[in-house]
Amino acid sequence: MQSLSHDQTRIAVDALVPFYEHLRLEDVERFGNYYRHDARFRDPFNHVSSLDGIKRIFSHMFTQVRDPAFRVTKVIIGEGDAILFWTFHFHFKAMGCKSAQTLEGVSHLAFDTDGLVTLHRDYWDAAEELYSRLPVIGSLMRGLQRMIRA
């Protein structure tokens, strides 16, 4: 199976990173410029295998949080794939959580020979990065962590 060279992968990533770092609701329709129609996306809450599914996930994100902003902090390029380390900054719209939130994670991206994303897999710890910060669930999670911690 043929894949992109390291340099071609770098070009694809260099185009994609600014898209994510400046993503707004009106940009969601532009995912097709970067993702193949049958691209797979997976994170702790979602698993879809279509461009429309990916657009739906990111559109939904804008209904749940205010001021979402991704900052890519490190990139590792391979031949036809890349690893992106990122920080996601946001404010919850609901749940009485008014303070700014951050979530750190890593994305594995695979590209086809046209430089379009075919696989986007996000890795982040939902328990530590999200649940523990919610008003009611957070206190339960912290109590559970204290019980389990050595």
Give a concise summary:
32% of the residues lie in helices and 35% in strands. It is an alpha+beta fold. A hairpin with a 5-residue loop joins strand 5 and strand 6.
Task: Record the SSE blueprint.
Elements: H1 6-21, E1 35-42, E2 47-48, H2 51-64, E3 65-77, E4 81-92, E5 101-111, E6 117-123, H3 126-129, H4 135-148
Parallel strand pairs: 1-6
Antiparallel strand pairs: 1-2, 3-4, 4-5, 5-6
Mean pLDDT: 89
CATH class descriptor name: Alpha Beta
Q: What would you call the shape?
A: globular
CATH topology: Nuclear Transport Factor 2, Chain: A
Number of domains: 1
Largest sheet: 6 strands, mixed
**Tally of alpha and pi helices:** 4
Strand content: 35-45%
- Helix-strand pattern: HEEHEEEEHH
Can you tell me the CATH architecture?
Roll
Q: Structural class of the helix and strand makeup?
A: alpha+beta
Low-pLDDT runs of 5+ residues are none
Radius of gyration, in Å, reads 17 Å
Number of strands: 6
Helix % is 25-40%
